[in-house]
Design a protein that fits this description.
Length: about 1000
């Protein structure tokens, strides 16, 4: 039976209500506490719990004695019994001392806190094979939990297990042991559901569990699933609150707070509303018909969401009121934070810490707000004056100005929203959180994101890959260069160039676009049309020239267009309908682009052209059994309005929508917008005006059935004012559909039997152990580099130093002729334009002559560092590199040596580990890839061997994160082999990589 003095036993949590408190120092390790030496501040973390609230995890220190006693008093007797296997109503002074004094190596305790008070604890004690206390190299520990009853079932114990396991691995512990009473089923479930490999036994009435701490495929899947549920729930609480309080709504005049209150009212928000302002007189009963209060705590009911619109210096007071009242989430509209000055950044960090200390999520500061068009919610907690129409598109932006523009443009294009989040400085809630919500949101089919920074690229790509498999994700990135990152976005900057980040996003299935216009163009297509099954495009319309422009645009984007079908300018809506039906029924087509210009001729005047053509096209789509995307390109010619107005008398009075000879007109000639309103909105332009592309493209659509929950009765047909815009959107849809097909067979990471992982690990450790104190890393010499690479089946062609001509001759004799002579000085390497390499030296006289020429041309041997190397077969020179980026993780790059990669940026990138399919795609994705496959009659090279080399480098970096950089240059790929001629490595203690390890919220 365990006693309090023994290593603690596991116990299943119990929860107590949060204790009110502000941004308290006990929620983080304060410098004034004088803790044990070596306090591990990097173990501190904020986490999202299963119900969407937040908690802080941190090491327990000697200053936590009172908090521990208070926490223990709130735990039920049953939970105490499960913890100590006996009635244990009170902790003794000896217990308190033991449970608050740790060395953070062999004895570690962590606490989960809300409002500065403990809600759960976990600890481990290192033990030897007999179960007695021990130190390293013992690699097993006993672990025990205690959680307040009121917090059981909220995911506190599982979050603590992830963090204590990570701490244990850091301290060299490989296994946990735990003893649990059989009736403590909740705690047993915490262990068994974690996904670690474990053993279970039953003895003396106690269940004994032992499990390894190395992450497994299942444990990672469990961790990611829990992360998704928690973060999704935290956003859902913000977007679907049962009650909202606007803090800072003014009584007199307008102001931002009053505007938001009125926007909520105008949207028909279905929950309870409150207005809060400390300047309200005591007799102020209501504001705009909404109950008014001087403070949040005066509200007699729960508040789920508070919209804070007060000056920045008063925000902490408002947040404290909200936290003490139990508000679940905040939208801080107030500015004056990270977007302003250095002091603002510090104010922003304090704001996040304060909100999280109460378990609240925060949107903002400097936010534009939230929108949820669900009829059951109708939330417009934003600066947008109108609630967006109901639709199937989710929108996230990091800029209020861009958010306004996107809302307006989507509305004009007839595309409704499910939800909209404009996060401002995104100090807490980020695009990753919203992506987690959209992933399983049944009301969102397409996700659009405007990002100015990606705080955790590795996590973002992981989430994007999962979401994009079912819902297209379209992203435009502003501030693409790190120097231009908005000062309010305190993110870990990546060292990778923008092109590399873009390639990694594409690998994850993200549809990356260049402009906000492209974002809308692509979004309206994906929201209204099915994905194409291939690149074959049918083009039809009544303008030969417009058809040819569309044809050229298709070729430019890599599509396979058919020769345009010209219906001639006399084509009627019935002709369009018939041609579209045939194109959709054609088994050799994957998409259709319809081009249309207004009619010229008799019968054109006053006929509702846009509506008639739109009805004809919708009818054709509705009648088709095939699922192929249809796009419309419409262009107006100057002077057409005057020509049409001259033929009014000839319009047949009985002409119906599809009567032969019926005409087509645009709903709004000034903008070119094809509307679904019934009345005509004709506009007159001066005769002789120059031809122009209309400026406001819109979808041909029909009104939605409100009962359809945002889904139109028939698919919308998106319309574009220029063929290039339509085709670009279509090409993105084609590539995304192909990506989905490819991800159904993602490939595998191969196992290589000839790899010496253990030997390489020992060699890496020895090299790092030899570093002088304070050194941040090392570049191994040629022998160590070649040894490490050889252990992974990557031989480097032998090269011998040649400090003088005689040594060069001896080296050549040892290697055997023919040989190559080349310089290796860092400032001259990989510069073939300087003539620093001499090949096919057949004998000693050739070698000595080449040696003399090099030194005479470029400098002394001491400067040039010449070497002699065996000749490699003729082939294509390539480069394989890998680097560990602190934001993105390990990235492997491949390109052709010289101008293609260095000057033109023709390089392909993949995240490690690289599968066999990734390697094949990486080789073939280069623009210069034809040089590898027999360009202009040359012999194709051994790409199979090249792909294997790429996978071996991936495996090397994946197995040994201490290898932070690899460069193989050049790698000669010949018709029947691959030879590595030059190699360098960089070793260092691996950087912390975002998105790895236990769940944690960003701490900026």
């Amino acid at each position: 039976m365990e006693t309090p003095a023994d290593p603690p036993r596991p116990e299943e949590p119990s929860s107590a209500a949060p204790v009110p408190g502000g941004d308290r120092p006990q929620d983080r390790h304060p410098s004034a506490q004088a803790p044990d030496a070596g306090y591990p501040a990097h173990w501190e973390a904020d986490v999202v719990l299963r119900d969407g609230g937040t908690a802080r995890i941190r090491p327990i220190t000697t200053d936590d004695a009172e908090r521990l006693v208070s926490f223990y008093e709130q735990v039920s007797d049953e939970s105490k019994y499960y913890r100590f296997f006996a009635p244990y109503p009170k902790l003794s002074a000896k217990d308190v001392h033991r449970f608050t004094h740790h060395d953070f190596v062999d004895r570690v305790g962590l606490a989960a806190t809300i409002g500065g008070e403990f809600i759960a604890t976990v600890r481990f004690d290192r033990v030897d094979a007999t179960g007695r206390p021990a130190s390293a190299p013992a690699d097993e520990a006993e672990v025990a939990f205690l959680v307040q009853d009121a917090y059981q079932g909220r995911g506190v114990a599982s979050a603590l297990l992830e963090h204590i396991a990570a701490v244990a691995r850091e301290r060299g512990i490989r296994r946990f042991g735990a003893e649990v009473l059989p009736h403590n089923t909740k705690m047993i479930k915490v262990f068994t559901d974690a996904g670690y490999q474990q053993k279970r036994s039953f003895e003396d009435g106690v269940v004994h569990l032992t499990f390894g701490l190395e992450p497994t495929e299942r444990s990672l899947a469990v961790q990611y699933a829990r992360e998704q549920r928690a973060e999704s729930r935290s956003v859902q609480r913000l977007l679907a609150p049962a009650s909202v309080a606007v803090v800072g709504a003014k009584r007199a005049g307008g102001g931002v707070g009053r505007s938001i209150l009125r926007n909520l009212l105008a949207a028909g928000y279905t929950g309870r509303l409150s207005a809060v302002n400390s300047s309200f007189p005591e007799e102020q009963g209501t504001l705009d018909g909404v109950p008014a209060f001087r403070t949040v705590k005066e509200i007699g009911e729960d508040v789920d969401l508070a919209v804070v619109v007060v000056p920045a210096e008063r925000v902490p007071e408002a947040v404290a009121e909200c936290g003490e009242h139990g508000v679940r989430g905040l939208v801080v509209i107030s500015a004056g934070y990270g977007e302003s000055v250095t002091a603002g950044r510090a104010r922003q960090r304090r704001l996040v810490r304060q909100a999280r200390s109460y378990g609240m999520r925060l949107v903002g500061p400097n936010a534009f707000g939230l929108v949820n068009t669900d009829p059951a919610v109708r939330l417009n907690a934003s600066l947008a004056p109108e609630l967006a129409p109901r639709g199937r598109v989710g929108l996230f932006t990091q800029s209020g100005a861009i958010g306004i523009a996107l809302l307006s443009e989507l509305h004009q294009r007839g595309t409704g929203l499910s939800t909209f989040v404009s996060a401002g400085n995104r100090a807490d809630v980020s695009g990753n959180d919203v992506l987690q919500y959209w992933y399983d949101d049944p009301d969102t089919d397409v996700a659009l994101m405007y990002l100015e920074s990606i705080g955790n690229p590795r996590k973002f790509t992981r989430l994007a890959r999962r979401a994009a498999a079912t819902k297209p994700l379209v992203v435009v990135q502003g501030a693409r260069h790190s120097a231009a990152t908005p000062p309010s976005h305190a993110v870990a900057e990546t060292r990778l160039p923008h092109a590399t980040v873009s390639a990694l996003l594409a690998q994850a299935g993200v549809i990356r676009v260049e402009t906000v216009t492209d974002l809308v163009d692509t979004g309206v297509l994906l929201a209204g049309q099915p994905l194409p099954e291939g690149p074959r495009v049918v083009i039809l319309g009544n303008s030969e020239s417009l058809g040819l422009l569309t044809y050229d645009a298709c070729l430019t984007e890599g599509l396979r267009p058919r020769t345009p079908l010209d219906l001639t300018t006399s084509a009627s809506p019935e002709d369009f309908r018939h041609a579209l039906e045939q194109a959709l029924a054609d088994p050799d087509s994957d998409a259709v682009v319809v081009t249309a210009i207004p009619w010229v001729g008799e019968g054109a005047l006053d006929w509702p052209e846009g509506e008639v053509l739109g009805a004809a096209l919708r009818e054709a789509v509705a009648a088709s059994e095939s699922r192929k995307p249809v796009l419309v390109v419409h262009v107006e010619l100057g002077g057409l309005a005057h020509a049409l107005s001259a033929a009014t008398a000839t319009l047949p009075a009985s002409a119906g929508p599809h009567t032969p000879g019926g005409a087509v007109r645009a709903d709004v000639r000034e903008t070119g917008v094809v509307r679904d309103e019934g009345e005509a909105r004709a506009a007159v332009r001066e005769p002789g005006a120059a031809a122009r592309v209309t400026g406001g493209p819109a979808p041909v659509r029909e009104p939605e059935d409100p009962a359809a929950e945002g889904r139109p009765a028939t698919p919308r047909i998106p319309a574009y004012p220029a063929p290039e815009r339509a085709v670009r959107a279509l090409a993105r849809a084609v590539r995304h559909a192909q990506w989905r097909t490819d991800t159904e067979h993602p490939g595998r990471v191969p196992e290589f039997d000839d790899i010496d992982e253990h030997g390489a690990a020992e060699r890496v450790a020895a090299l790092l152990d030899a570093l002088p104190a304070g050194a941040r890393g090392t570049t191994p010499g040629p022998e160590d580099t070649e040894d490490l690479l050889r252990r992974y089946g990557i031989p480097v062609l032998r090269a011998l130093p040649a400090p003088d001509a005689d040594m060069a001759a001896r080296a050549a004799a040892e290697l055997g002729y023919p040989v190559a002579l080349k310089i290796t000085a860092p400032h001259l390497r990989h510069r073939p334009d300087l003539g620093g390499v001499r090949l096919d030296l057949a004998d000693e006289s050739d070698l000595r002559r080449a040696y003399a020429d090099l030194t005479a041309l470029l400098g002394s041997p001491a400067e040039l560092r010449p070497v002699v190397q065996s000749m490699a077969p003729r082939g294509v020179d390539t480069v394989v590199r890998a680097v560990i980026d602190p934001a993105a993780g390990a990235v492997l790059s491949f390109g052709l040596a010289g101008a293609p990669s260095e000057l033109l940026g023709d390089t392909a990138h993949r995240l490690v580990p690289v599968t066999d399919r990734d390697a094949a795609d990486q080789v073939r994705s280069l623009r210069s890839a034809p040089l590898l496959f027999g360009w202009r009659g040359a012999a194709p090279v051994d790409t199979d061997a090249l792909q294997e080399l790429i996978q071996r480098v991936s495996r090397l970096v994946d197995d040994h994160p201490e290898i932070v950089a690899v460069s193989l240059e050049p790698v000669v790929v010949a018709p029947r082999t691959v030879r590595v001629l030059g190699a360098s490595l960089r070793l260092a203690h691996p950087p912390a990589v975002g998105g790895e390890g236990p769940r944690r919220m960003p701490m900026y």
